[in-house]
Amino acid sequence: MPLRPDIRSVLVIGSGPIVIGQACEFDYSGTQACRVLRGEGIRVILVNSNPATIMTDPDVADATYVEPITTEVLTSIIARERPDALLPTLGGQTGLNAAMSLVEAGVLDDYGVELIGADATAISAGEDREQFKRVVERCGAQVARSVIARTMSQCHEAVAALGGYPVVVRPSFTMGGLGSGIARDAADLERICGQGLEASRTTEVLLEESILGWKEYELELMRDKADNVVVVCSIENVDPVGVHTGDSITVAPALTLTDREMQRLRDIGIAVIREVGVDTGGCNIQFAVDPASGRIIVIEMNPRVSRSSALASKATGFPIAKIAARLAVGYTLDEIPNDITGSTPASFEPTLDYVVVKVPRFAFEKFRSADPTLTTTMKSVGEAMAIGRSFTEALQKAMRSIDKKGAAFHWDGPRPDAAGTAALLESIRVPGEHRLVDLQQAVRGGATVERLHEATGIDPWFLDQMVLLQEVAEAVAAAPALSAQVLAEAKRHGFSDRQVGALRGIGEDTVREIRHAYGLRPVYKTVDTCAAEFAARTPYHYSSYDMETEVAPREREAVIILGSGPNRIGQGIEFDYSCVHAALALAGRYETVMVNCNPETVSTDYDVSDRLYFEPLTFEDVMEVYEAERIAGPVAGMIVQLGGQTPLSLAARLKAAGVPVLGTSPEAIDAAEDRQAFGVVLESAGLPAPAHGTARSDEQALAVAGRIGFPLLVRPSYVLGGRGMEIVYDADGLTDYLRRAGAEPGGACADGPLLIDRFLDDAVEIDVDALYDGSELFLGGVMEHIEEAGIHSGDSACVLPPMSLSDAEIERIRRSTRAIADGVGVRGLINIQFALMSDTLYVIEANPRASRTVPFVSKATGVQLAKAAALLMAGQSIASLRAAGLLPQEDAAVTDPYDPIAVKEAVLPFRRFRTPTGRIVDTVLGPEMRSTGEVMGYDVDFPRAFAKSQVSAYGGLPAEGTLFVSVADRDKRAIILPVARLAELGFTVLATTGTAQVLRRNGIPATPVRKVSQGRGAHGEQTIVELIESGAVDMVVNTPKGQGARADGYSIRAATTSAGRPIITTVQELQAAVQALEAQLRGPFHVRSLQEHGADRISRRESAARREARA
After folding, report:
1. Distant-in-sequence, close-in-space partners of 1031: CB < 8 Å, separation ≥ 6
2. HSE on the CB side for 253, CA within 13 Å?
3. Is the peptide bond before 319 cis (omega within 30 degrees of 0)?
4. What are the residues facing 613 on neighbouring strands?
5. Can you say how many angstroms the Cα of residue 978 is from the centroid of all Cα atoms in its chain?
6. Which one of 501, 509, 770, 795 is least enclosed by Cβ atoms within 10 Å?
7. Model confidence over 607-644: pLDDT tens digits?
């Protein structure tokens, strides 16, 4: 069936901010779908609150609304745009839930909008636990015995009906396993079901018989209107059931199923997708197989593009989201060509002649009190994927792609003795971040496959592969000489030069020289969807120590762009955004070559750059890609400044090895990181920096502290996302920091000296993104932080243009930025953080690279900074970019009074991280970044823009109800006016005794309540935490008292986050919240697309230019 003529415009709902369980795989799938629909001549209207995505670029859709994803806002957009259809299956759980809310509110019927991709019945059948159970049974398959519960008493009855503990708890309509868990006793049940009932959109949970230890598989399927079904990919979890699939190491294709078992899973999967009624798109079905009996049960289904869809797309080269979008507008699978071969239709199932391994990346170091045990609630923040000709090769490549100390297998030090091996076997019984490395160490210590299987439940075949790796390692270590044969065998099993060097007691560079002397280099194979049965047109490559390479020669010069690797807190989708923009900007003049290992991102889509290498971002792997590309044709250079700290850390070694690094030189990058060198730059420019020093030992650190005085900001060298950064208020605090940092791998000074700065309390923090070409500066954006200095810029809300800076101050910032860019030697982007205190502008730090705020600034100002930066790196000037219309004549130093206001707000993952007792980790923000994503509020003034940002990030602020206030003494004077205004707006104010007294003296009625430390009153009066937990409090204001988490403050913050209520932890945020509430009371939000804002901006500039010309 051809394209439906009745669908002329489609509304696509994005997935909102990056959160654990719903990351940038939806940016990848949404971007693909928007491009395809526009290619078919359909008008695309996009709604997404996330500014960091490629999807929200104004040239991806026809109308881009960076607005909150709420029923009210979506209704306004539908009323303005009148789309023919709504495609809800590309925005993760957020998009699906938003679409269901519109259906239930009758909005789609009122405006005649059709739901395409999956209708409401199919969504309910896949997402509603009870309906899905009936679907599976009608297909002749089994589900785990289960009971639906909607209250806590029903949960206890369900356990009895299922035959006792353990039971698995799964809420309906959630993603990333939020609220799910394994209850092993009544206390667990109360805790997990309480969280699950609250997390579920329909307040229901499913309690299932335990299938812990079973093998877990997934199938990715697609179906069209003509009932053609293809199985795109099978995925197997290395960890057995009990660990969320997002936190498990997974393999594609499934490796331990017999043909008969595989056929049975296919039959069930096809029957289920037909019965549910997903008739124009993809879905993901999860299965469990009992290794003892072979019994198969269906765990769950996602009737939408999911996290696994992105993995399956990258693993097979089959673009699921692209095809799902075409199916949704009328095509059938046999009418859609396969992009990669060009000669086969999408109805051909992909065939793999390689193995793909995905490894998750965690961030427990950011949440020190969190329980690091892996369960059915997803906790990983990112993932890396690798492709190899064997499981061992792909696994080792994936492990080193994680880019984290201790993540790869190692053979350091003596092998574990019997007691050490027994301890390792005990530790791997509990799934955790380092389970596979501990398992490899147990194999080193002589643990047998039987003992390993008994401890972990991991399939013996995978364990046997671990033994094989140990045998290869022993052969390398014991060989009389590192012969070509021994080295080739190690490389075929994925051993890096560094690992081989460690086994032989020689350096990595020596191994490389020996390997090259033998002529041992990787070849690059192509992901072709058809196991080489048909010719592939798209150069999507992976390395292997095999026979022949498939890298085609080329005529044009190439630019190699290094991506940012797996997402992590501090280095996420924002850097991928800059890499993609560089590829798009340079494509006209160069052959663009992308190197990355993150399956979730747009940069690893095979049609973003001219060539894609799915490889780890280590020096060895990047150098081999460079050499392969040099053989293929001329290479202009490599871009390392756009992918964050991962590629940046390779810059100096790459240059030393003869690689031309484009843009800012590695020496300049080091000059900005090196305290002394940067100090010289500031001194020659006459710019002040806070008093600072460096230390390489605890004694030096205490001496520096004595010299510059407390409070201090302490951090390690070369970090991103404020890793290990803390504010310390006294000598005891510094001693405690040094003790904890010393316990980390490599100690506190592993990557260079500790950096110690005087911390500027009460300063206004300012973030600047700018471009510099060696002579001219273009000021991209000046952002003012809403919270004062001391909160990491990635976690702080900020506003652009700045609210309280005069034109004179902005000009001073511009002069300072130019002096630093010139002194450092920047060619391209630079990000500088300033602090304004008592009319002195201090320089906190400068980063000569793409920053986290580049996408936000680009969306807010309409200037695509990353594209301009890539062209500057390639040798163009700011003047030439202005002449070509890629940069406007005026930069951010000239303010446009009619420009809308943009507010960036961080989204924090605290609800995912609980202590072993089930309490949420402390939610106080500091200089170490902890947010996973961000949203943007965009409107005519600050109150409305801030209100939108709060709705997008946290569901908004309550318009009435009960407010609880408890603040540190230093903040008591500053809260009087905002709290008085909230009382006028009708809020009932509760406060701790000290705060209540101050408020009452200022004429604000406030009821004192009991602190946790005071316990219940004589007449049973509840403590504040009990009141919050019972739902009696709607909003909390709690500023922490000094350093560390005081017990009362922590309990209040943890209870508030657990109850899903807004919590405000700084005075500045409280003032902004009051303005936002007043804006909300003035009526519903007004919505406008980025394209409309951009057109207005251009017409204002043109009018101004005409007025000037007349004058």
Report:
1. 1059
2. 16
3. no
4. 541, 595
5. 34
6. 509
7. 899 999 999 999 999 999 999 999 999 999 999 999 98
Q: Residues, the chain, total?
A: 1111
Give the amino acid at 818.
R
The residue to which tokens 């908004």 are assigned: 956
Dig out the tokens for 737 from the structure: 């920091």
CA end-to-end span of the chain, whole Å? 61
Please identify which residue in the block is written with the tokens 């993760």: 92
pTM across the whole model: 0.90
The token pair at 256 is 């331990």
- Relative to beta strand 901-907, strand 933-939 is antiparallel
Extract the runs of DSSP E, i.e. beta strands, from 926-992: 933-939, 962-966, 988-991
Q: Provide the pairing of β-strand 798-800 with 828-837.
A: unpaired
Quick one: tokens of 598? 């993150």
b/e string for 68-80 if b means 16 or more Cβ within 10 A? bbbeebbbbbbee
Beta-ladder partners of 783? 767
CB 824 within 8 Å of CB 811: no
Chain-centroid distance of CA 422 in Å reads: 37
Q: What is the DSSP code (8-state) at residue 11?
A: E
The one-letter amino acid code at 286 reads: Q
SS3 assignment, position 80 = helix
**Residue 607, CA atoms < 13 Å, CB-side half-sphere:** 15
Q: How far apart are CA 429 and CA 406, in angstroms?
A: 19
Distance between CA 195 and CA 2 in Å, rounded? 47
* pLDDT at res. 748: 59
| Confidence tier at 332 by pLDDT (50, 70, 90) | very high
φ/ψ of residue 115, rounded to 5: -85, 120
Q: Please name the residues in contact with 843: beta carbons below 8 A apart, sequence gap of 6 or more.
A: 682, 687, 688, 689, 816, 820, 832, 833, 834
CB 789 within 8 A of CB 725: no
Tokens found for residue 1063: 């919590």
> Do residues 703 and 734 make contact, with C-beta atoms less than 8 angstroms apart?
no
Consecutive H or E run containing 361: strand 355-361
- Of 577, 562, 639, the closest CA to residue 852 belongs to 577
Helix crossing, 675-685 with 807-824: angle to 10°? Answer: 130
Radius of gyration (Cα) for the chain, nearest Å?
29
Query: What CA–CA distance (Å, rounded) separates 706 from 548?
Result: 63
Confidence of residue 932 (pLDDT cuts 50, 70, 90): confident
The rounded distance, in Å, linking the Cα atoms of 120 and 137 is 21
- Residue 133: phi, psi to the nearest 5? -60, -40
Reported in sequence order, the residue ranges of 584-690 that DSSP labels E, i.e. its strands, are: 591-596, 611-614, 635-639
Taking residue 450's Cβ as centre, other Cβ atoms within 10 Å add up to 10
C-beta contacts of 547-555 below 8 A and 24+ residues apart: 547/523, 548/523, 549/523, 549/524, 549/525, 549/628, 550/523, 550/524, 550/525, 550/526, 551/524, 551/611, 551/628, 551/629, 551/631, 551/632, 552/632, 553/632, 553/633, 554/591, 554/632, 554/633, 555/633
Phi, psi (5° rounding) for residue 936? -130, 130
Q: Tokens in use for 100?
A: 């269901």
Q: Which two tokens stand for residue 522?
A: 């990787």
Instruction: Give the bridge partners for 541, in sequence order.
Output: 526, 613
787 contacts 843 by C-beta, under 8 angstroms: no
